[in-house]
């Protein structure tokens, strides 16, 4: 187990380095930030001074080397626009996105597993079929459109919920969160639903397929032959087996929810890292874009590791061996 | 053999049918038998003869599109066919238990053995976890699992096939049921393990007076284990009686065919006899006697109507127009 962890961490470090090089070179290829940062009226000397200050006059390999050396020390550069460390900018915005993604995940898991289980147990019932049809809708609706429609109905027509922004927040262990104020929750609801809908549909389909397979297994019949109650059979014997594929897929999807909440955050003006990314791309704020991508890779690695560990908890047949990874 | 007046389990004219798109399959078609306390009944037949469905019907575990459409299952005088799901649940695993064919599939792979055993105790008895665990440990010990205390915390995949079947048997024995239905429990096991398990089942049931319905296609198993035997073909019991009488002097051509196709040391080098043809599909049974298309004794009247059950001698039943050893009329 420990050897497995060390090996995984080593691999993760390698992935981070490779990613850093790719991201840095990729970002170098798009546009010249100086054009955006300096007013057109500035004279040549001023321009030269700015370029030298930002280090943009040095050759690519030297810039890359400097970036890597600083990155190892936790310094991903300063934002050209805001003049503060890019990493700090991202960490400031990260809680908002994490909060959004986690709430969406909880919604997707609880609603999806419940509906999927139901549809799997009663595949021929009207409700079971309706759930499956609904999940196709959930797959196909574009994220931004759904967000706009929710705003239209609940914020504009009914005026029950706010249309955008984050609302009131409180500090919890130094992290700003809107989970504990009514105003914050009301702001969170619509974007979370928007972000969760696709994942919910995914979980419904996974849970339904798993349920239909598991209920046919001998061990379910044996559990019934033991005289167990239906709820014990479903919520212990069936549920634990269908959670294996669900956790695997949802774990990977959590990463993509955090990294690509961009559209939802833009529609709802949610001050998370997705919105920060869009703003930074528009302003050619290279350090922030790079830092964002590095943070995304880091989160993905972390989640994959967590999924693997969780997987071995759920399925006793999975051993985290030293050889495999 | 000493028998009490009222049998523990009596099955009367049981009918279970599967309503499929292709038609109605009469998987169990008027099956009757009874088992007394401490008795072992062998239920023999080929694949698809309806013997497993008979077992599931007794416990009320037939899944749609299957349904019990007629007959009675009397367990200690109580009709299980009319019993509600709640009452059935109270009896399953408590008064009547079942062991399945494939030990690799019967235990839930993601739950520990103790979880799966303790829940079986606590579903029927209001005892605390410690007491339930103690009973589980004792049951494992009784079926010959070494170091039962440690094995309780193991997962099914850490056991071999034979050990898993012992665990399944231990679960069936947990609440000391009156009847155990064993659906080919040794088919998937090595011959040596098979012999051990047969011996232990016989011993355990003999000690506790548990009646045993042993479903199998293996006549050798039946001859060594059962007191009486029922031979099933296409959903019906075609012949039944004390195991020695039926195996030594089979009357139904199907029983005779089954016995003839068992390999024997005495007939080395002689081509093995076999019953021609295959088990017919339950959706397209031949009219009259279902066996007539494969039967060496078949005559014109076999197609006319299905043979009624008769009693050629005391304690035996037979459904055949032209039994073995009877002069052709």
TrEMBL record, chain A:
Subcellular location: Cell membrane
Residues in coiled coil: none
Gene3D superfamilies: MetI-like (1.10.3720.10)
InterPro entries: BPD_transp_1_N (IPR045621), MetI-like (IPR000515), MetI-like_sf (IPR035906)
Domain ABC transmembrane type-1: 94-311
GO biological process: transmembrane transport
Entry keyword annotation includes Transmembrane helix: yes
A Pfam family recorded for this sequence: BPD_transp_1_N
Annotated Gene Ontology cellular component terms: plasma membrane
PANTHER family according to UniProt: ABC TRANSPORTER PERMEASE PROTEIN, DIPEPTIDE TRANSPORT SYSTEM PERMEASE PROTEIN DPPB-RELATED
Family in the record: Belongs to the binding-protein-dependent transport system permease family.
Listed name of the protein: Peptide/nickel transport system permease protein
Organism whose genome encodes this protein: Tistlia consotensis USBA 355
TrEMBL record, chain B:
One GO CC term on file: plasma membrane
Domain of life: Bacteria
Entry's Gene Ontology BP terms: peptide transport; transmembrane transport
Residues in ABC transporter domain copies: 9-259
Gene Ontology MF terms: ATP binding; ATP hydrolysis activity
Region (Disordered): 305-329
Xref: Pfam families: ABC_tran, oligo_HPY
Cell membrane listed as a keyword: yes
Annotated Basic and acidic residues bias: 307-316
Alphabetical UniProt keywords: ATP-binding, Cell membrane, Membrane, Nucleotide-binding, Transport
Membrane topology, as annotated: Peripheral membrane protein
Entry's localization field: Cell inner membrane
Predominant localisation class: membrane
Similarity comment: family membership: Belongs to the ABC transporter superfamily.
Protein name: Peptide/nickel transport system ATP-binding protein
Organism name: Tistlia consotensis USBA 355
């Amino acid at each position: 187990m420990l050897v497995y962890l060390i090996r995984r961490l080593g691999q993760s470090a390698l992935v981070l380095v490779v990613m850093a090089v790719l991201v840095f070179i990729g970002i170098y290829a798009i546009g010249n930030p100086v054009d955006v940062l300096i007013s057109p009226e500035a004279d040549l000397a001023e321009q030269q001074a700015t370029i030298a200050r930002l280090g943009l006059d040095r050759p690519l390999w030297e810039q890359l080397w400097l970036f890597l050396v600083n990155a190892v020390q936790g310094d991903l550069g300063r934002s050209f626009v805001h003049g503060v460390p890019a990493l700090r900018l991202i960490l400031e915005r990260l809680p908002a996105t994490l909060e959004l993604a986690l709430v969406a995940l909880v919604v997707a898991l609880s609603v999806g597993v419940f509906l999927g289980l139901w549809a799997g147990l009663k595949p021929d019932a009207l409700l079971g079929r309706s759930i499956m049809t609904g999940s196709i809708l959930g797959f196909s609706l574009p994220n931004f459109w759904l967000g706009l429609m929710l705003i239209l109905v609940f914020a504009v027509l009914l005026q029950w919920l706010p249309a955008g922004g984050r609302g009131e927040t409180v500090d919890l262990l130094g992290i700003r969160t809107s989970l504990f104020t009514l105003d914050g929750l009301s702001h969170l609801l619509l974007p979370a639903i928007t972000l969760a809908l696709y994942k919910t549909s995914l979980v419904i389909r996974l849970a339904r397929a798993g349920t239909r397979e598991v209920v046919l297994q001998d061990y379910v019949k044996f559990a019934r032959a033991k005289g167990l109650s239906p709820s014990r059979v479903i919520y212990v014997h069936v549920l634990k087996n269908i959670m294996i594929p669900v956790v695997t897929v949802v774990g990977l999807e959590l990463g993509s929810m955090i990294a690509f909440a961009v559209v939802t955050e833009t529609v709802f003006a949610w001050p998370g890292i997705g919105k920060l990314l869009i703003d930074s791309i528009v302003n050619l704020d290279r350090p922030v874009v790079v830092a964002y991508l590095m943070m995304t890779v880091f989160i993905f690695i972390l989640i994959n590791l967590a999924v693997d560990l969780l997987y071995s908890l759920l399925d006793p047949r999975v051993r985290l061996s030293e050889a495999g990874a | 053999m000493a028998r009490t007046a009222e049998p523990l389990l009596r099955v009367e004219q049981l009918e279970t049918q599967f309503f499929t798109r292709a038609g109605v399959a009469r998987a169990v078609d008027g099956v009757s038998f009874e088992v007394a306390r401490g008795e072992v009944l062998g239920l023999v037949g080929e694949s698809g003869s309806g013997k497993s469905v008979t077992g599931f019907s007794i416990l009320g575990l037939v899944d749609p599109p299957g349904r019990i459409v007629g007959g009675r299952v009397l367990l200690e005088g109580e009709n299980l066919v009319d019993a509600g799901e709640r009452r059935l649940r109270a009896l399953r695993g408590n008064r009547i238990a079942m062991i399945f064919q494939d030990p690799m599939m019967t235990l839930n792979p993601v739950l520990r053995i103790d979880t799966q055993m303790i829940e079986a105790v606590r579903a029927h008895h209001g005892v605390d976890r410690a007491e339930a665990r103690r009973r589980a440990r004792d049951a494992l010990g009784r079926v010959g699992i070494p170091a039962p205390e440690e094995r309780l915390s193991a997962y099914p995949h850490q056991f071999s096939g034979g050990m898993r079947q012992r665990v399944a048997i231990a679960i069936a024995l947990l609440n000391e049921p009156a009847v155990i239905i064993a659906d080919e429990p040794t088919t998937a096991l090595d011959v040596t393990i098979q012999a051990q398990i047969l011996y232990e089942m016989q011993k355990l049931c003999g000690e506790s007076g548990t009646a045993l319905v042993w479903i199998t296609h293996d006549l050798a198993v039946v001859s060594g284990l059962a007191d009486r035997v029922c031979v099933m073909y296409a959903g019906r019991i075609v012949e039944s009686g004390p195991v020695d009488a039926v195996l030594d002097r089979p009357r139904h051509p199907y029983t005779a065919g089954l016995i003839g196709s068992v390999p024997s040391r005495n007939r080395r080098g002689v081509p093995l006899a076999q019953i021609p043809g295959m088990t017919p599909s339950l959706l397209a049974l031949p009219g009259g006697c279902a066996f007539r298309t494969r039967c060496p004794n078949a005559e014109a009247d076999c197609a006319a109507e299905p043979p009624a059950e008769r009693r050629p001698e005391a304690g035996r039943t037979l459904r055949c127009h032209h039994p073995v050893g009877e002069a052709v009329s």
